[in-house]
Design brief:
Layout lengths: L1 E2 L3 H10 L4 H13 L4 H5 L4 H10 E2 L3 E8 L5 E8 L4 E8 L5 E4 L3 E3 L8 H5 L1 E4 L2 H16 L7 E4 L9 H12 L11 E5 L3 H10 L4 E5 L5 H7 L8 H14 L6 E7 L7 H11 L4 E7 L14 H13 L3 E4 L32
Parallel strand pairs: 1-2, 6-9, 9-10, 10-11, 11-12, 12-13, 13-14
Antiparallel strand pairs: 3-4, 4-5, 5-6, 7-8
Length: about 350
C-alpha cells in the first residue's frame, strides 16, 4: 500500500490513475487541513478513481487504543499501537489561552537510558517510521477538531531520542512543513535532544526554523554522565560549541532552549549553579528549569522543592539569563515529561468516529 505521507509514491499513483493534480490537491486538503478521515478524503476524487485509491492509499499506521484525560490540567494522553504491537504515546496539552500543543514520540522506548526517565528504563524497542511520527499529529488533530481546537505547537519530547532516529525525524519535519501536506509553521515545532552535536547542526541547517532544545541537566561532567549514560560520548564543550553553531545557523532568531532538570542534591547545589553559569557564559540560550516527575524506577532521585527551584531561577536571572520554570501537566495520567513508558496505564475511554464535514 502507498503511504499518504510519501509524496513521490502518491504522485506515481496519481499518474497511474491518470488523475489531474487538482483532485489530488483536494484529497490532501481534506485529509491534512480539514482533518477528515481517509474515506472522506478519497470522496474528493472523481468517482472512477475512488475505489482504486481507497484500496491503494494508507492513511494511518497507528491505531489509537486508549485516551486518558487529566482531571486537573487539560492534558490528554493518547496510547497508540503500531502494526507490530509496539506502543507509542503522545500527549495533548491544552492551555487556557486556547492554544494547543502536542508532544509526540520519535521512538518506541529509548536506548539512552537516562536514570530519571521512565522511557529510558524501558530500553529501545525500535525506531518509529516517519509515517508513525506523523500519524500522531493526524490523529491528535482529528480528536481536537471536535473541540474546535488545532495543534499549534509540536514538540518532539515524547518517547525516544529524536536524533537516534534522525532520518525518519527529518522526513517527518519535511512533511510537516510542506505546503501541500500539513503546512505546519516550522517555527512552532521543537525537537528536544539529549545532545548529539553533529545531528543538531544538521537539523539546524536543513530546518533553520525548527527550535532545538538541549537536555543539559547538569554542567558537571561527572554528574551528567551518572544521570545520562550517553553523555560519555560527547563532552560539555562539544555541546556548548553545537549550541553556538545552531544559534548562528538559525540567525539567533530563537535561541536554543537549554533544559535543566532540578534534582535534589544532584543538580541544584551551589556548585551546580556555578557550573551552569560558567557553561552558559557568552552563550545565547533560554534556560528552562524542569521539575522532576518522580518515577518508580528511580528511588534515589527526588525533586527540588518549589521555593528552591524559584531561588535557582532567580540567581540565573540575576546574571542576565532568560529563564522559565516549567510546570508539569498531565502527571495524574502519567503523561508528564519522563513518565511515558512502554505500557500505558491510562483509563479506558470510548473513541468516537469522525464524520465527513
Ligand atoms: N530524548 C529527548 C526528548 C524526549 S525526553 C531528550 O532527552 O531531550 C523530553 C524531556 O523530558 C527531556 O528534557 C527529558 O530530560 C525530560 N525528562 C525525562 N524524564 C523526566 C522526568 N522524570 N521528569 C521531568 N522531566 C523528564
Ligand atoms: Fe531517552 Fe530523552 Fe528519556 Fe533520556 S530523557 S532516556 S534521551 S527519552
Amino acid at each position: 500500500m502507498i503511504d499518504i505521507h510519501d509524496s513521490a509514491a502518491v504522485e506515481r499513483l496519481r499518474r497511474q490513475l491518470q488523475l489531474d493534480p487538482h483532485p489530488l490537491r483536494r484529497l490532501r486538503n481534506a485529509f491534512y487541513k480539514r482533518r477528515l478521515d481517509g474515506a472522506c478524503a478519497v470522496a474528493e476524487l472523481p468517482e472512477a478513481s475512488r475505489e482504486r485509491a481507497a484500496a491503494e492509499l494508507r492513511f494511518h499506521t497507528l491505531t489509537l487504543e486508549r485516551t486518558a484525560n487529566s482531571t486537573v490540567d487539560g492534558a490528554t494522553k493518547l496510547l497508540f499501537a503500531a502494526d507490530d504491537g509496539v506502543r507509542v504515546e503522545s500527549v495533548i496539552l491544552r492551555s487556557r489561552t486556547g492554544r494547543t500543543a502536542l508532544c509526540i514520540s520519535s521512538q518506541a522506548g529509548c536506548g539512552a537510558g537516562c536514570a530519571f526517565c521512565a522511557t529510558g528504563h524501558s530500553g529501545l524497542l525500535r525506531n518509529l517510521s516517519s509515517s508513525e511520527i506523523l500519524d500522531q499529529v493526524v490523529q491528535a488533530n482529528r480528536m481536537l477538531r471536535d473541540e474546535g481546537r488545532r495543534v499549534r505547537n509540536i514538540v518532539l519530547m515524547g518517547m525516544g531520542e529524536p536524533f537516534h532516529n534522525e532520518a525518519a525525524v527529518g522526513e517527518a519535519l519535511a512533511v510537516l512543513g510542506r505546503t501541500d501536506c500539513f503546512d505546519h509553521t516550522l517555527r512552532h515545532v521543537a525537537v528536544s535532544t539529549v545532545g548529539v552535536p553533529a545531528a543538531m547542526e544538521r537539523c539546524a541547517r536543513r530546518f533553520p526554523q525548527v527550535r532545538l532544545a538541549l537536555s543539559l541537566h547538569s554542567a558537571r561532567a561527572a554528574v551528567r554522565q551518572q544521570l545520562i549514560p550517553t553523555a560519555r560520548r560527547c563532552s560539555l564543550e562539544e555541546l556548548r560549541d553545537a549550541v553556538a553553531t545552531v544559534n548562528e545557523l538559525q540567525a539567533r532568531r530563537q535561541p536554543v532552549m537549554v533544559e535543566y532538570l532540578l534534582l535534589a542534591g544532584w543538580t541544584d547545589r551551589p556548585e551546580d549553579l556555578d557550573a551552569l553559569l560558567a557553561w552558559c557564559q557568552g552563550l545565547h540560550v533560554h534556560l528552562n528549569l524542569i521539575p522532576f516527575n518522580a518515577i518508580p524506577e528511580a528511588t534515589d532521585l527526588h525533586p527540588t522543592p518549589r521555593p528552591e527551584r524559584e531561588a535557582f531561577a532567580n540567581r540565573l536571572k540575576a546574571r542576565g539569563h532568560r529563564v522559565t520554570l516549567r510546570y508539569s501537566l498531565g502527571a495524574d495520567v502519567t503523561a508528564a515529561c519522563g513518565q511515558l513508558a512502554r505500557s500505558g496505564r491510562s483509563a479506558d475511554r470510548p473513541l468516537s468516529g469522525t464524520e465527513c464535514g
